[in-house]
Amino acid sequence: xxxxxxxxxxxxxxxxxxxxxxxxxxxxxxxxxxxxxxxxxxxxxxxxxxxxxxxxxxxxxxxxxxxxxxxxxxxxxxxxxxxxxxxxxxxxxxxxxxxxxxxxxxxxxxxxxxxxxxxxxxxxxxxxxxxxxxxxxxxxxxxxxxxxxxxxxxxxxxxxxxxxxxxxxxxxxxxxxxxxxxxxxxxxxxxxxxxxxxxxxxxxxxxxxxxxxxxxxxxxxxxxxx
Length: 226
Description:
Number of strands: 0
Number of helices: 9
Order of helices and strands: HHHHHHHHH
Shape: globular
Largest sheet: none
Helix content: over 70%
Structural class: mainly alpha
Mean pLDDT: 85
Radius of gyration: 21 Å
């Protein structure tokens, strides 16, 4: 209890562990299809393989860069490593980190926020894995209930309800900034329904619009820095 906490040493250990685990995770993900091909004796059609890789990279590389720039400053190093490994950033990990930060009264960029965010995301990841494990075990017994026509509409609208509730708590914090990007995105999806599946590009566009509006409103004094 009398020893001083060395935050720099803590950060260095987090980066070592995070880089090691992410490298192992990426290697296992890339190795999985080749292992399956080797086990089943299948032949990989390399031309189709590289065409598929390119089509995926075109979509996901820009969104990955944007997500890195947006989420890492908010989450900190430890929580970011865990989040990018386990997924569900927007709908699970980020709200957990934000709620924990508000409960603990910590500020973004401080050592306290770094530790609180890491603990909250780690807890969320463990709970998620337990829920998924339970869901896999109970999938067959619960199938008649889940496919019941009376409650099926409720399950069909779980994600819209979830994202609506999560989004509102952030939109209401700065209505001036969110009104135009949100209206633009809704109108675009109504006019061009195929854009609903292009969330990566919409994220880049709306994020850019929100940042530009925030800077303009701040320069004009319409919003104040907290």
